[in-house]
Amino acid sequence: MPRYMVHRTFPDGLQIPVTEEGAAACLGVVGKNADVGVTWVHSYVSDDKQTTFCVYDGPDPEAIRRAAERTGLPVHQITKVSVLDPYFYR
Amino acid sequence: MDLLERERELELLDGWLGEAAAGQGRFVLVGGEAGVGKTTLVNRFCGMARGRARVLVGACDALSTPRPLGPLLDIAVSAGGDLDQLVSENAPRDRIFRAALSELDAGPTPTLAVIEDAHWADGATLDLLRFLGRRIGSVPALLVITYRDTEVGPQHPLRIVLGDLATSGTCRRLLVPPLSEPTVRALAAGSPIDASELYRITGGNAFYVTEVLASGTMGIPPTVRDAVLTHVARLTPAGRAALETAGVIGSTVDPWLLAAAVGPDVDAVDECLTAGLLRADGAVLAFRHELARAAVLDAVSPVRASALHRTVLEALRARVTHQNDPARLAHHAEAAAHRAAVLEYAPVAATRAAGLGAHREAAAQYARALRFATDLPDEQRQPLLTAQRLECHLTGQMEDAIAAGEALLAIARRAGDHPAEAEHQAWLAWMLVAAGRNVEAERASRAALDILAGIPPGPRHAFAFSVQAGLRMLNRDSDDAIAWGERAIALAERFGDAEVRVRAINTVGSARLVAGDEERGRAALERSLDLAREAGLEADVAAALSNLGSALGEIYQFPLAERYLTEGIAYAAERDLDRWHWYMVAWLALTRLFQGRWTEAASLAGSVIRHPGATAISRIMALVALGRVRARRGDPEVAAVLDDALALAAPTQTLQRLAPVRAARAEAAWLVGDQNRAREEARAAYDLAHRHGLRWHVGELAYWLWQTRDLVAPSPDAGGPFASQIGGDWAAAAAQWRELGCPYEAARALADGDEAAVRQALVEFDRLGARPAAAAAARRLRELGARGVPRGPRPSTRANPASLTTREVEVLALVAAGNTNAEVAARLFLSGKTVEHHVSAVLAKLGARSRREAVRTALERGLLPQTGGVQTPT
Ligand SMILES: Nc1ncnc2c1ncn2[C@@H]1O[C@H](COP(=O)(O)OP(=O)(O)O)[C@@H](O)[C@H]1O
Ligand SMILES: [Mg+2]
């Protein structure tokens, strides 16, 4: 399944409280993604919390957008990516 | 026999039967390799369900050219009533199909219908499965279909039907796994055979395992076939001869037929039964498994096989009953190389198959007859070839259809029959174009017209002219298409050929429409639509709606196109007219694209692309729609999609396909800033479009050439808003686009304007989610010296205001009114847990640390309705 990097921006900063409510929010996202065949692998959040780069596995860009719509998360740009790691040539 | 380790499967089937009983019909695809245990499982389930459900069972047969609707014939016999009546009097197939559906709906208990071995299904049965599968959702019935998944490759006709049905919510799948090692051990207990070896070699295939054990050998035969033959080797010569005869007769064996063919030796048949190679199945005998029959037949020498087939054939012919199936007789006749019998039965079988819509089988029966007809006189081969040409044409076997057409042409030439020669050339032209061999098609059509020029007008002229009109229309030579079409219409009216008339009117209408003569074009197509409806020509009704929708789309009349397309899609879906259905869905996708409804466009296009049965032209248009949505959003995987579109469009060499594909590719290149490639793409189709003078195609391609600085002067042929924009009047262009209901194109025109216009364009691009165009507009604004244009993501592509779901807004509003979670739960009839989920989702989305903060942020951003009783929290 292809892998995508989803660039999102949060003008007011993304805040997920480290509480049960925060955890439940994350799980909610996971569940809604699964409904459309998309898996959230992990995300990078900028220090100012205004930008996230989220790694997703999904069948096509439309599925990534469908998932975003369900979870209400904004999408700035979707890029198709593949893994390149520093030890690849050893 | 004990059924081992199928509890899970039986439980699943039972659950689905329960759902069916409650009115939610299901069909279940039971897959698995030959001998794995599908039939055994399904039989057991039928046994369990009897009493609770009406059980109907039918099987597809393993004949190389099966009887059409074979399984339904079995079912009709046991169901009796209407269905049996219709089937035995060869009623039209839509009546038979509807009767089958009402049979499933007959009540009072749910119906459990089984169709076995669908990998051998004939064309009519496949259509029946599709018909029932699409409608079973509201019928209290469970339809179980078994098939060998290992034998259904990507090109298999069943694959297309399954792919189609699998997307519906009523489909369930069940894969029957091989037996596990412990089960094989349990079966082998008490036999001298090494159970681990047995499991390893058989892979747990139930038939293989049981056959090895039944054959009583010490070693384990290396293949299923060897296992069967080891078993057979223990029979006496007479027993073996009886078994071979049974194998020649078929999967099920009428005892009288076996007796007639084997002679008076009853013991020989008994011996096969005792050995467990044959079993009694109601009134008939059957092999324990089709694998056993295949192994037995394989080992019979060709000479002996031929002799056995002749014996069976003679026995069948000697006892004429109404059940004598011509497909079966033709099968034995061919295997016996009995020429006269083949020529007697194969054409009858073909006619019957064609009548039921099993066109593939009909074509195969004609091909069978023709294999034995090489030295027949031309007058006798001609009707066979004519029929074969039609059946191959209907099933898309174009190369065979063309070969038959060429043979007919040769016959007409030998006879010096010029009118017939012309007719055959016209037919060839039509088939060649369907096969994508346009150059040869043109030549054939020309040849037909040349011959007819020297002959007084007749019905053949009408047909040949309509073909020429069709070729000209597809090639977008509109004037010629109209001229030939009108001559065809006049002649068809004079000679009373309703079909040619309906089609020629359609052609003329389509040609007028794409050439921009909207009024007369629509009128003609509407007329063709009415006439087709009156004459009950369903495919022509779908064709008229499809051409109305697509041609109006081609000239950017999307609201009208939408009307015909939605009507046409419903019409075609109701009647399983798939070819038209998918083409109209693809055009609806394009329509939604231009209307700025991109999410719908992408999902419609995706449904066409994923559908294995969609034709190349439907696929091309869907790929264009999807590629354009992705390009306009700045999403990845544009190239893959548009490369596929080009690969499919290139061989057609027609403007109708090349122009949209090239324009889409030009747009995609331009949006990623590759001006050179954008120019090349537009150039690649521009001259062709120009030659045909089609304003809209010329318009868009000229627009890309103009955007990429390749064209300075506006083209006189360019269509409406494109011409305005190239001429520098962006405001007029934007107004025209808005009038046409194309928001993205309107914004694109504004983006060429002054600062205020570009700002407006930017807002519109943001609303549409058009990232690359928005970025370009922002850049342009900065170049114009505008202030306050943010770099980076555009405001409205960030958190979209609708990021809270309706339910979340509802919850938040109640929270804002001061309710606790428990109170919210009570008000909305939700559980406390669910409300907690909603609240935490809202907090995460708004980046709020507390409920109070969430309410404040939501109010600031206008996410909560200000009226409607929501109070500000205190
Ligand atoms: N669950 C089972 N337990 C024991 N024997 C089985 C089982 N399933 C199948 N068999 C044996 O294997 C043979 C072949 O199974 P069958 O159901 O006819 O295969 P399929 O229909 O998948 O080709 C049966 O005749 C039966 O003897
Ligand atoms: Mg079976």
Keywords:
heterodimer, A: 90 residues, alpha+beta, Alpha-Beta Plaits, B: 874 residues, mainly alpha, Rossmann fold, five-stranded parallel beta sheet, three-stranded antiparallel beta sheet, 45 helices, 67% helix, disordered C terminus, binds adenosine-5'-diphosphate, binds magnesium ion
Description of the molecule:
The complex is a heterodimer of chains A (90) and B (874). Chain A is of the alpha+beta class. Chain A has one domain (3-81): ORF SCO4226, nickel-binding ferredoxin-like monomer (Alpha-Beta Plaits, 2-Layer Sandwich). Chain A has helices at residues 20-35, 61-71, and strands at residues 3-9, 39-45, 51-57, 77-81. A 4-stranded antiparallel β-sheet of chain A has the order 2-3-1-4, with helices on one face. In chain A, helix 1 (20-35) packs antiparallel against helix 2 (61-71). The longest helix of chain A has 16 residues, at 20-35. The radius of gyration of chain A is 14 Å and the shape is globular. Chain B is mostly helical. Among the domains of chain B are: 7-175, Rossmann fold, CATH 3.40.50.300; 181-232, no CATH class; 719-798; 802-874, Arc Repressor Mutant, subunit A (Orthogonal Bundle), CATH 1.10.10.10. In chain B, helix 6 links the parallel strand 3 (111-116) and strand 4. The radius of gyration of chain B is 34 Å and the shape is globular. The model of chain B is unreliable at 795-802 and 866-874 (pLDDT under 50). The A-B interface holds A 2, 4, 9-17, 20-26, 28, 49, 60-62, 65, 69, 72-80 and B 599, 602-603, 606, 630, 633-637, 771, 792-793, 795, 797-800, 802-805, 808, 836-837, 839-841, 843-849, 857. The complex binds adenosine-5'-diphosphate and magnesium ion (MG). Magnesium ion is lined by residues 38-39, 116-117 of chain B.
What does this entry show, briefly?
With 90 residues, chain A is of the alpha+beta class.
Report the sheet-strand fraction of chain B: under 5%
Strand order of the largest sheet of chain A: 2-3-1-4
> Largest beta sheet of chain B, briefly?
5 strands, parallel
> Mind summarizing the main beta sheet of chain A?
4 strands, antiparallel
Structural class of chain A: alpha+beta
Structural shape of chain B? globular
Low-pLDDT residue intervals, each spanning 5 or more residues of chain B: 795-802, 866-874
| Pair of chains with the largest interface and how many residues each contributes | A-B, 34 and 36 residues
User: What would the principal axes of the Cα set say about the shape of chain A?
Assistant: globular
Distance between the termini of chain B: 76 Å
Tally the helices of chain A: what do you get? 2
CATH architecture identity of one domain in chain B: 3-Layer(aba) Sandwich
